Please model this.
Amino acid sequence: MTAIRPGSPPGPALATGGFRHHDVLDLDDFALDEIELVFHTADGMKDVLGRDIKKAPALRGKSVVTLFYEASTRTRMSFELAGKALSADVLNLTASASSVTKGESLVDTVKTIEAMGVDVIVIRHSSSGAPYLAARVVEPAVINAGDGWHAHPTQALLDMYTIRERFGSLDGLKIAIVGDILHSRVARSNVWGLAKVGAAVTLCGPPTLLPSQWGGVTDTNGHQDGLPPPRITFDLEDALDGADVVMALRLQQERQEGGLLPSLGEYIARYQITPERLGWAKPGALLMHPGPVNEGVELSSDVVRGVQSVIDRQVASGLAVRMALLYLIAGGPQ
Model:
């Protein structure tokens, strides 16, 4: 298997169905067939999770460390359960309970983890690019579990996998992403992934929470991203018109405190997804949210638990997708 590190040129086409990534840092360097391989592998992991004994020996003898510099419930628990379901040894490290509190740098921390013979390091960090730095200095595989405003590739993959479960294919679907796009690592990775699978993306939110441009910019590896720019609109009805999927993003309190919103009430009045507004989308459109939901802000209470909501399904998909990635990186054909 050809290992790809940040800045490495793309490897050859996948002729034998192998996974050519050493790390999972974002979806910018994923080919369509690699995304399909992740989904196909996740299908198999769902079978494992459907058994009475939800365990497989695929990663027996392998070790996984989750290194989280930010609070997390869903992502961290998902990776821990994924590793354990594949029989890996999983160790959870939080920055607040480690030598980071004594001034240890990220490089020193991951080098220490490497010296212990760990196979995979899962990193969440508040600084954009932190997992890229870790991947450059250690040999263990690095999985980005969210870095600053930059990327959250496993969230994007589980979002796409959830959509695929319902529609069978993402090619040609209309996806509306609503909320704080500017500061959203989830939105950025979804734009990468959804473009690769042929979906049409519309980004919607207040002007102060939308990027001034998207597509045709230079990525973290110094290459032009090559993405067709997603459609951008400030008008929610316009964004939701004919959408197959509506994905709301969490609105963080600091956006209002930082003066990027006149008031929370105005955001709710213009951008909250309600049953009436969800009716602007296609009949039966999926409602998604990466969580945690600020109920009554991004989504009204009645749509959070409505028949179109697949928020709980996203959590279940996340376990299968993260099992698939751990297997492909640490246990698949080499």
About this structure: The chain has two domains: 32-152+316-330, 153-312. The radius of gyration is 19 Å. The longest helix spans residues 311-330.
